Structures are given as structure tokens and as C-alpha cells.
Amino acid sequence: MKIILTSGIAVVHILFTLIACTSSGDSRYAYWTNSHYVDQIFTRWNKPDSPGAAVVVLKNGSIIHQRGYGKANLKNGMPITSSTVFEVGSIAKQFTAMAIALLTERGKISLDDDIRKYVPEVYDFGKPITIRHLIYHTSGMRNWEVLFKLVGYHGQLNSGQVLDMIYHQKELNFDPGEEYTYCNTGYLLLAEVVQRVTGQSFPEWTRANIFEPLEMTNTRFCDDPGKIMTNRALGYMPNKNGGFRELLPISETTFRVKQADIHMTFVRNEHLEVEEVLTRFGKWKRLLPARKEQSISPSELKKFAGNYHGRELNTTWTFYTHEGQLRAKHESEEEIRLIYTGANRFVGDKWWFQQIEFSHDDNGRIIAFRLSAEDGLVRGLRFERTNQP
């Protein structure tokens, strides 16, 4: 069974064989006598008009159940089989980390080396970002997916485009080693370290040093997002009114769980006003700002209108008022509605355009704003006003 694993970025994929298996009719393997129970679990997906899954069950090192359910491609009706290729997200990070571990074991690099030793194009932030920081998501670097949303890019990306964006960043979310925030940017840089230390492409080196020694002969990273792969399963999500909609792998992937273990706690101040919301998704927690709207006069609201340019991204956002509300617009994005929460602060209705705080000069004129995305993926990204009223 082959699956595609992404290395945490949409521009690098890995084609991975979990086990050396054969077709479901291979007589070498005795199937589990209770296979029909597994079949029952996947009955709802084992239909001609539904995406599905490939399932394998092992016991004592032997395959006892192996079967595909549903369709890999709803357009042409291609069924899911043991050879279907799946794209499964950031599971590939473990193979990127394994590549780094092998280079460390061989004395080629140290986990405490500064990333700029191998990738000097990364900005000197005044405090070193080590390979260890990148592995454990403590580098403080901004998540590249948010940055590309802010410049209005919606196409497929290659590693070179993303790295160029990373090299232009001049600030961090936090000092290296001070906090933990899941960061795909770090793993793209780790793959770049492997390439520069070995003199080989990341797909070539991992094939020769990880996958071939493990006899994972159908496993490889693929750094071309447009590469055609046979037997590839497309991603789908359910429509509200029935049926499914295809998910296209562009610069990011968003998943919504219809039924999940979600708990919310509202934190109130001494005046019993909600100040923040603690949200729990299973074992994951995140702290979200309360969106309590404050009143503001139309004349005061207009003071925030204008064009704002982000030097690090080389892009401009326009703020204007409409129907008594401040809104933000980029030439390549839908408008964003902003709620005033007081003290020159607003909250946007997009996860990647969530918290906006304006600053002013000594004369009280608005001169800039800083933007932060949900979950701290980007914090305090500065945009400077290019026109004054």
C-alpha cells in the first residue's frame, strides 16, 4: 500500500510504502476470520459515489486483513486498492527529522548549530536559531502559509518560492527557545539543510539513505506539486447538501471535524465581562481573544482608513469604512470585516487576519498596524501607512 506524505509543506511530498504488500488476493496471507467486521465499519464509504480508505491489519508481523473501500477518484470511478497513493499531511515530518538525525549521527551537523551556518540567507535575528529549535517547533519563525495568504497567493508553490519568502522575514514571533508553536517553516529549512550539507536534492538523499536501506522501494519525496502520479487518490470533503467536494492541494490544507470532542471555557474579569475563551479540542488547547465589540464614532473609525504596506511581504492592504464598519481588502483576497475591540485594536473574521493593533505618532495620526494570526502562527507583522488623511 502506497501513500503520499507531505513534509509539512504543500511543495514537498513523499511517496511512501508502509509495508511490502501484494494484492488483496495473494494466497500467502491468511485473512482474519472476522474481516467482515472491518468491512462493516467502512460500509458507509464503500460506495461508487463516495471517497474511502485503504485498510491493512497486521498480527505478529503478518497481514491478516487488506482491502480498499470507496473510490480514489469520483470523476473516473477509480477504486481504492492496496496500490492507491494517498496524501496524508505532516506525517512526513518524522522522515525529515530522521534525515537530520542521520546527519547528526554521522558527524556532518550538530543539533545546536545555527541555521545560518548552512542557510546564510536566513535573516540574523540577533539570537541564533538552531537546528534543534527547528525540529521541536521552538524557533519563533513565522508560518509561511499565513504569509502567502497575506500576499494573496492561491496557486501551487515550490520550495524556492517559499524559501524566498522566509529569507525576507525580519522579525520572529518570539525569541528562539522561549515558546512552542507548531511551525511548518522550520521543516522546510531542515530539508534545505540536508540538501546543502550533502550536495544532493532532498528527494535523492532520502531515497538513498532512508528508503532504499529500509527496502521501501516505492517511497520517495516529490518536490514538484504538479507531478502526475498514477493511482493517486484525490482529497474530498462533504457538501452541506450531500455529495462531496474536491480538495485541491495548493498552499495549505484546512480540515473541519463535524463531530469532535470540543469544550469551551469563558474567562471573565472582575466585571463579569468575557475577556478570553479557552477552547479544548481533545488534547489540544488554544487561547482565543474574546470578540467583544466596542462602540466607535464614524469619524473616529475613518482615521484608520488608508493604504498600508508590509515591507517584509512587499504587499499592500487597503482599509476603508462601509456600513459603519472598518474593512480590509487586498487585490487578491475577499474583503475582511473588522470588529473594534477598543484601544486601536480590531479583530478580523479570518483566522489568518485575526488581531490588528494600530499605532500612532505624537500627533495622534495613525501610522501603522501590526497583524497576528490565530494560534500565534504569525505575530506582530508590521504594515506601515503609505498615505495620510
Mind sketching the topology for me?
Layout: E1 2-6, E2 13-17, H1 35-41, E3 53-59, E4 62-69, E5 71-73, E6 78-79, H2 93-105, H3 131-135, H4 144-150, H5 159-167, H6 184-198, H7 202-211, E7 220-222, E8 235-238, E9 244-247, E10 262-268, E11 274-281, E12 284-289, H8 298-302, E13 306-310, E14 315-322, E15 325-329, E16 336-342, E17 345-350, E18 353-360, E19 366-372, E20 381-385
Antiparallel strand pairs: 1-2, 2-7, 3-4, 5-6, 8-9, 10-11, 11-12, 13-14, 13-20, 14-15, 15-16, 16-17, 17-18, 18-19, 19-20
Description:
With 389 residues, this protein is α+β, with helices and mostly antiparallel strands. 18% of the residues lie in helices and 29% in strands. The strands form 6 sheets. It has an 8-stranded antiparallel barrel. Strand 11 and strand 12 (284-289) form a beta hairpin. The longest helix is centred in the middle third of the chain and has 15 residues, at 184-198.
List keywords for this structure.
389 residues, alpha+beta, 4 domains, 8-stranded antiparallel barrel, 20 strands, disordered N terminus
Unreliable stretches (pLDDT < 50, length at least 5) are 1-32, 250-264, 280-289
Q: What Rg, in angstroms, do the CA atoms define?
A: 24 Å
What average pLDDT do the residues reach?
81
How many domains make up the 3D coordinates?
4
Beta-strand content = 25-35%
Q: Which sequence of SSEs, written as H and E, runs from N to C?
A: EEHEEEEHHHHHHEEEEEEHEEEEEEEE
Q: Total number of β-strand segments?
A: 20
Sum up the overall morphology in one term: globular
Largest sheet: 8 strands, antiparallel, barrel
Q: How far apart are the first and last residues' alpha carbons, in Å?
A: 62 Å
Lateral arrangement of strands in the main beta sheet: 13-14-15-16-17-18-19-20
Protein structure class? alpha+beta
Count of helix runs = 8
Helix content: 10-25%
